[in-house]
Amino acid sequence: IACFTIFISSGINAEYGTIGCLVLLSQHAHTLSIPFSLLKQQKDVESLSKLILNHAHLFNLKTQNADPPCPLQPTPVPLPNPLPQNITDAFKELDQFLTDYWESLNLPGGLSAAVVYDQDILHTFNFGYKNKSEPSIPPTIDTIYRIGSVSKVFSAIMLYQLLEQGLIKSIDDEVENYWEGFSIINPFSNSGITFRQIVSQLAGLPRESECPNDCQIASEEMLPIIANISLILPPYKIPSYSNLGFALLGNLNAENLKGVSFGDYVENEIIYPLNLTSTGLNFTDSVITQTAVGYDSNGNPQPLNYYGWMSPAGQIYSTVRDLAKIASSIFCDNSSVSACTPILNGSWATEFTLPVYLNPDGVTLFGTPWEIRFQNSYLVRRKGGNVPGYSALLAVIPELKLSLVSLFSNSISEFDVSDYAFPILIPAFVSVLQSLQPPVPTIPNPELYIGTYYLQNTTTPIAVIEKYSGQYGNLLLFNIIGYNAFFYYESATVMSVYIPPGIISCLDNELLALQYQKFYFVIEKEEVVSFTVNGFVPGVVFVKAK
What is the pLDDT of residue 32? Predict the structure, then answer.
């Protein structure tokens, strides 16, 4: 369609134009059921375009392998108070699941959890006990837990902050250019490893370090040890989880680029700006009194070990309330319902949550540093954590501004909670948000635009604009050779394209690139005479039939 439209409007030699379109169409002739011999008989662009028009219905041919319609993903908006029943019912179902799940494990300890929407904690759940010596006292969202590998989120935030500040030029730069004295054996190539590879677990690093003395050493002592370590995989081969990678990332970025320790950086650049009042690395006496006792499966209390140089991989402690603040900082933007502090700004906040690697199962992915799962048409960015006596989960869906935070004082499979919780939460929030979406603006004087439109200087009808009244509202519908879409009114002479969910597949919509395009109408003597869509078909004028 774009092929013959552009050739007609641009004045390109008709013979060359016809040949070009024939080549394109011949590649799809079997799909469209147009005999190629019939295609070859068309001697000019005009006759070719008429042939396409006569077979336009075939462009909408659906097969068993056709992609499904693009699902609805409403924009987050403020929720009413009290909360709608769909959401409160989902919370009740979630509570029942968490109760049954914890009881089925028959483990000592407790759990604390919260559901976060944008800048607010909407729901909390606490079960079990903080200390089995006082079994009647449950934990709360302010109880401190070790968060294990959720600590890696802090190293990832640091990386993106350094990128935002320009101290790292590109996430795809090799780390040797920034880390003094760092080297590692790469038996697969002469290339170094990059920041992106490390933060997305694609660097091919060993899982653990060869760290002496329980890692109570400095980077100067670790670097010569690492220089004799080899990568176990070629970078970008497949993800291979590495605590060593995040120890490098956290320590060497802080020390080389900021001149401070990892702990000092986290305190000054993340904990303090976000007002994380119960988050840190060092277990002082006052912190220990607020900390849930972590147990093994036999009920033995687990020590609060200090991981030294490996701290960026799993040392940090926190609370559900503080981790909820991190989720809210990820969601913070101009549309947030209350004042907030973004931990990253603009495109860096977006890149922080983008996936990097899709696993062959087509369901799970790796991000930076997220362990992502595709659920209910959304990418749930999850970071799990496990150290002796504790498990943790921070899961966020930026597109919905929805998060689940769960902390446990025993070792459990934290992703079991995520996998069950989000199929409960996502449909409830989607249905409520959809009901709260602002309506598409009504178009004044829609009769001005209704009619059939031809390509300028041809007799080929190419578009129809007509009234529509249905599930999407009272709108103007336009059709260009089999493609239906609506107008979003901006002014009498400017409208953008609106394609509601469920009409075409996501990929088709993105490849078509018609969504959000601007239509510019020419109005003379209170009559529409033509329109152009220069961002879609530059220079083409669509003239309204009289």
Answer: 47
Interatomic CA distance for residues 354 and 136, integer angstroms? 43
Phi, then psi, of 86 in degrees rounded to 5: -55, -40
Question: For residue 202, how many other CB atoms are within 10 A of its CB?
Answer: 25
Tell me the average pLDDT across 448-460: 89
Handedness of CA 356, 360, 365, 366 (dihedral sign): negative
Which pLDDT score is estimated for 499? 87
Q: What is the pTM of this model?
A: 0.87
For CA atoms 225, 230, 235, 237, give the dihedral sign.
Answer: negative
**What CA dihedral angle connects 161, 162, 163 and 167, to 10 degrees?**
150
* Virtual torsion, Cα 299, 304, 307, 308, nearest 10 deg: -170
Contact status, residue 336 vs residue 170, Cβ threshold 8 Å = no
Q: What is the mean pLDDT of the chain?
A: 89
What is the three-state SS of 380-405? EEEEEEEECCEEEEEEEECCCCEEEE
Q: What is the pLDDT of residue 39?
A: 45
Kindly list the strands in the beta sheet with 364-366, ordered across the sheet, starting from the edge strand earlier in the chain: 120-128, 110-117, 402-408, 390-397, 378-387, 371-375, 364-366, 357-358
**Separation CA 137–CA 127 (nearest Å):** 10
β pairing state of 371-375 and 364-366: antiparallel
